[in-house]
Write a structure and sequence with these properties.
The chain is 45% helix and 10% strand. It has 17 helices and eleven strands. Strands 2, 3, 4, 9 and 10 form a five-stranded parallel β-sheet that branches. Strands 1-11 form a two-stranded parallel sheet. Strands 5-6 form a two-stranded parallel sheet. The mean pLDDT is 94. This is Chitooligosaccharide deacetylase. Belongs to the polysaccharide deacetylase family.
Amino acid sequence: MNRYPRDMHGYGQTPPHANWPGGANIAVQFVLNYEEGGENNVLHGDAASEAFLVDVLGAAPWPNQRHANVESMYEYGARAGFWRLHRLFTEANLPVTVYGVATALMRAPAQLAAMQEAGWEIASHGLKWVQHKDMPPDEERGQIAEAIRLHTIATGARPRGWYTGRSSLNTVDLVAEAGGFAYISDTYDDDLPYWKLIAGQPQLIIPYSLSTNDMRFVTGPGFDNGEEYFTFLKDTFDCLYAEGEAGAPKMMSLGLHCRLVGQPGRLQGLKKFVDYILGFDKVWVPTRLAIAEHWAAEHPYRAQEVLPSQLDKDEFVRRYGSIFEHSPWIAERAWDGEMGPANDTAIGLHFALRTQFRMATPEERLAVLRAHPDLAGKLAAAKRLTAESTAEQASAGLDHLTDDERETFTRLNTAYVEKFGFPFIIAVRDHDKASILETFERRIANTAEDEFATASAQVERIALLRLKAILP
């Protein structure tokens, strides 16, 4: 059993309608990352200075040293950038979600008071603004608990949203394990919220975005100036707004940093974007918590039966062993191969089964062809077809033939098998009696090589139609 843990399918071609309040075509969500005072610093007990997301070209951590320039840039964010952003959003009367690093909030009494007076949501951004990728799970678990404790002390309330940012592979699971979060945002994999089952419990995920994040002012390729930033934000908004008008509303997340877009030359691009979206109707500007509450109400988690990739082998083969006629070995091999969430739909599971059919030897594939019954043949007359074949033949009226039609099918079946060595196979659900007979007459003239390929393709088509009848 080889299960691929990543979900490469998501909502697929048919995402749910967001039903944003007021029939909005888009939800635009502003996040202010408050990290100043929580970054790497030997003063904070860290091993080196900070080097991430600052206006120092080629910055690198300095082991056991403070970095005066980097520290000063973070201080700019707290001393000046924050207040510039605070004025922008309060004057525009737009709600904001703050991703607040717990230790940074503990060093920012005035800024914290201003956030709360403005009614902004304050979500947790972890204990410290440090890298977690190599952090042992027990250590990260402890830091999550301490972040919640300090956040509660600083703000007076436990955080209901979480975003680590510099996360590990364990972060989402560990935060869900801690419990009590209306949403977690440590993913970048969709334009809509979604539910994820973690340790048997549903957790709402509200994906974030780095493409619209002001961090690109100091990373490459990035934004050189506010105008470039505005253009990218506008293009993103316009695309998503148009999708909403077409009936598929989405969400746009903007990540902001006090020390980055809080710089005056950059802020103008953000202000221009704020003014731009205020000129539209049907735009919802919520906090992330408001999105979480809306989604939980409009699209509550609904338990699903066990998905194909999660079944044990015996049950998987019991359910899907007859998809390829009388050939359960195909399902057995598919279960043994790499499967994951992308294989839990009709198309996805068909791909897994079809792959095994195509990888089989010519002799094995021939055996699959020979496992199929004649159309309107003796097995059908004796009612000895599989349930799937019985229903399929009945769908084209092959269970109610005139004597002349039965004689024609018998003649063609006999000639076909004598020539090719396997029964005539066609996805009867795609046809009626007349088109089946026309195709039968035409295909019997094929070469053996061409007809083997054609019959194999029809076997695959039959399997897909069978799966579509039982899976989304």
